[in-house]
Every structure is written in structure tokens, then in C-alpha cells.
């Protein structure tokens, strides 16, 4: 990671009250006992921030830090603990979705003065609450950036294929040439 990238991360961490120690290409956060880097080469309890200019990368990074702060060490959980964590955060996500819908004129039986989103900022903030739980669910399996990219490409390809050819019949293989796991339903 560049010195500029490391300094940008340090400023973000200081803004949320976390002191840091800087190494040549890694940041140590003593309060959370965690390293921050742009690769997994440094330490098993390392949180990755690969793109300091991408808002989703930053949000994912900060959400992982928040989970460390909450004492959720997902990467070192047992299988049973990880499943419990996933179930808990999936339930929390489901509870947040109605809050997003409350910001949108969605009821078909109701007449609205306008079908515009009345408070775009409030909608965005509620959506970000959902995204935080989505990131927790993602972090639970500690994917590499390449695994995330492969999963995105596979899902997009699958959805286009389904749109073009319908949902009947086998789905096929993922982009690595491996058969798809299990019977999947619509996204």
C-alpha cells in the first residue's frame, strides 16, 4: 500500500478514535489488536483495505473494524460460532429492510402525492444500515478480492443467462468451470 493510502487510513481511524502505529506497509491498531494492510501476507488477524478511494471498499473495511471493536472476531470463530453469527446478522438485515421500504412510496393500495423518494438522504442512510449487515455476512467467510470478483461475475452471468433463456433446466458451470453447488433459485 502506498504511503498516501496508509496515511488516508490512519486519518480515518483517528477520526473514529483509534490510535495507530505505522509500519512500512501495515498499520497496527493496539486497542483492537489488529493489523490493517492491503494483503493477507502480514498477519492472520489482518483486516484488508485494498482501495482507499472506493467508498464500498472503505465501508467494508470500517465495518470489519467495527466488528472487531464489538469483539466479533469472525476470522477466528469456530464453525458453530460462525453459523450463529451469520444467522444473527441475516436476521438483523431482514429487520432493516422494512426501514428502507418506509422511505419509499411502495404501497399499491395507497395514493401518493408523488412517486418520488421523499427523503433521499434518509433512504440512503437506511440502505447503508442494510449494507453494513450485508458486509458482516460477507466478512463471515473472509473472501479474497478474487473470490468476490468471481462470485460477482458468476452471479451476473447466471442472471443474464436466466433472463435470456428462462429458469428451466440446469444452471451450468461457474466461471471457473466448476459445477454450481446445489440447486439455486432466482436471485
Q: What does the model show?
A:
- This protein is an alpha+beta fold and about 190 residues long.
- About 50% of the residues lie in helices and about 5% in strands.
- It has a four-stranded mixed beta sheet, covered by helices on one side.
- The radius of gyration is 20 Å and the shape is globular.
- Residues about 175 have low confidence and may be disordered.
In short:
With 187 residues, this protein is of the alpha+beta class. The protein has helices at 3-15, 55-69, 79-101, 120-139, 145-165; strands spanning 21-22, 27-29, 34-37, 46-48. It is globular and about 60 Å long.
What sort of overall outline do the alpha carbons produce when their principal axes are compared? globular
DSSP strand tally: 4
Q: Biggest β-sheet, characterized?
A: 4 strands, mixed
| Tally of DSSP helical segments | 5
Strand content: 5-15%
Q: Residue ranges: pLDDT <50 for 5 or more in a row?
A: 173-177
First and last CA, distance: 35 Å
What would you call the structural class? alpha+beta
H/E element sequence: HEEEEHHHH
Order of strands across the biggest sheet?
1-2-3-4
Helix content estimate:
40-55%
Mean pLDDT: 79
Compute the gyration radius: what is it? 20 Å
Amino acid at each position: 500500500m502506498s504511503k498516501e493510502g496508509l496515511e488516508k487510513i490512519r486519518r480515518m481511524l483517528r477520526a473514529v478514535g483509534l490510535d495507530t502505529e505505522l509500519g512500512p506497509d501495515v498499520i497496527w491498531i493496539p486497542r483492537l489488536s489488529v493489523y490493517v494492510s492491503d494483503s493477507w501476507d502480514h498477519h492472520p488477524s489482518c483486516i484488508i483495505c485494498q482501495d482507499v478511494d472506493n467508498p464500498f471498499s472503505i465501508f467494508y473495511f470500517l465495518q470489519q473494524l467495527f466488528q472487531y471493536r464489538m469483539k466479533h472476531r469472525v476470522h477466528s470463530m469456530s464453525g458453530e460460532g460462525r453459523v450463529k453469527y451469520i444467522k444473527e446478522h441475516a436476521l438483523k438485515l431482514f429487520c432493516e429492510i422494512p426501514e428502507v421500504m418506509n422511505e419509499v412510496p411502495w404501497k399499491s393500495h395507497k395514493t401518493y402525492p408523488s412517486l418520488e423518494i421523499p427523503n433521499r438522504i434518509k433512504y440512503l442512510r437506511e440502505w447503508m444500515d442494510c449494507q453494513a449487515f450485508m458486509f458482516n455476512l460477507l466478512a463471515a467467510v473472509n473472501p479474497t478480492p478474487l473470490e468476490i470478483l468471481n462470485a460477482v461475475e458468476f452471479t451476473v452471468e447466471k442472471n443474464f443467462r436466466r433472463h435470456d433463456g428462462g429458469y428451466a433446466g440446469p444452471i451450468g458451470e461457474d466461471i471457473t468451470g466448476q459445477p454450481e453447488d446445489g440447486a439455486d433459485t432466482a436471485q
